[in-house]
Amino acid sequence: FWLRQDLPERKVRYEESTGTWDVFGYPEIQQAITDPKAFSSDTRRLSPVADQTSTEGMLTQLDPPEHQKLRKLVSHAFTPKVVADLEPRISELTTELLDGMSGRAELVDELAYPLPVIVIAELLGVPAGDRDLFKQWVDSMFTTNNRFSLTETSPEQEEYLAKAMAEVGKLTDYLHQHVRERREHPREDLLSKLVLAEVDGQRLSDAEVANFGLVLLVAGHITTTMLLGNTLLCLDAHPEQFARVRADRSLVPRAIEESLRFLSPFAATARATTREVELGGETIGADQLVLLWVAAANRDPRQFDRPEVFDVTRDPNPHLAFGRGIHFCVGAPLARLEGRIALNLIMDRFPELRTDPDSPPEFMPNPSMTGVRRLPLLL
Ligand code: HEM
């Protein structure tokens, strides 16, 4: 991973230009990610621009004890049983999307984006037909290739953030409308369950349910889109391993885990220090923004043998692509299931599939997202 290669010895460094800390090492990230008291998930208070959005119900930004209360609610929605029951619907959707593909195809537009977004929209109970709107609103958050500075705010940075916040605001308003409607007419969907749920004898507010839905909708699709694209990209680049997986489907789950390690979709997650801490031989003061580069940790030679080698038989594979500790990805079982079903059905349908040599893939411009946003294929 490029950041780690620049710094073979240092696992933690201060980045002067942005006023933030970068953490690249596996044990160092594990230390930070499992210590929410010293490394808070509420990073907004360090934001260089006033953030008007509320964090009520935003699971990813909450610390204990609020975090546990909400996490319990969402865990019910993603139990192994609930996720396993989605298998027929995910297979049906994948088959329908594959039916629309022939000859030359573009994986992201035709399968890797629509599949997870339809699944999460159906779970929440919002119309999957609105997915082009979600894409427009959510894309705005990830179109920059700049790292934000906490020390100097530039007009471009402020303009970008203002625009992104306005787009996210549209998604929140959209979810608010659905939440209000569910209060009056509950249905059998996740939004209704959240509207009716009680935490310590109290119902969640509309804002909490809407923000909760926002986190699920955003976290629940882009990352899985990248997982599907990255897995095909890695397999295509290693034809002998692709042939092995085609011949022995029991390797599919491991191939997906290895893709998550090798090209981790959610490359970095952020924390704010609450006090002075020692990490990787450095002293980090209180109220510092710390970026935990899980994608770099997933190639740490202290943890993984031959980390630069993509190996579909790697086992065990304790990668950090879904995080670890109290914020461990709620949707991991769902993402794994979607990956498994999609890869199997793609291999069944298109045994000769390869990337299009005349049309190279395009990658996400944002450094904290590792994945293709266009992957042209010859089927
Ligand atoms: C949390 C990655 C798919 C919902 C996380 C975290 C990571 C992650 C690294 C931890 C963030 C942190 O510690 O700050 C991924 C990847 C995915 C994926 C790589 C796909 C390949 C999904 C899906 C859903 C989802 C499908 C929902 C259906 C969430 C939620 C959290 C989370 C709600 C916050 C959990 C908490 O704060 O307690 N994800 N995710 N993710 N993810 Fe995922």
Describe it for me?
A hairpin with a 2-residue loop joins strand 8 (277-279) and strand 9 (282-284). This protein has a single domain (2-47, 54-350), classed as Cytochrome P450 (Cytochrome p450), CATH 1.10.630. The protein has helices spanning 2-6, 26-33, 66-77, 80-85, 87-99, 107-112, 114-124, 131-139, 155-184, 190-196, 206-219, 222-237, 239-247, 252-262, 294-297, 332-349, and strands at residues 12-15, 20-23, 39-40, 104-106, 198-199, 202-203, 268-273, 277-279, 282-284, 289-293, 354-355, 362-363, 372-374, 376-378. The radius of gyration is 21 Å and the shape is globular. With 379 residues, it is an alpha+beta fold. Residues 33, 41, 59-60, 71, 120, 215-216, 219-220, 223-224, 227, 265-266, 269, 321-323, 327, 329-331, 334-335 line the site of protoporphyrin IX containing FE (HEM).
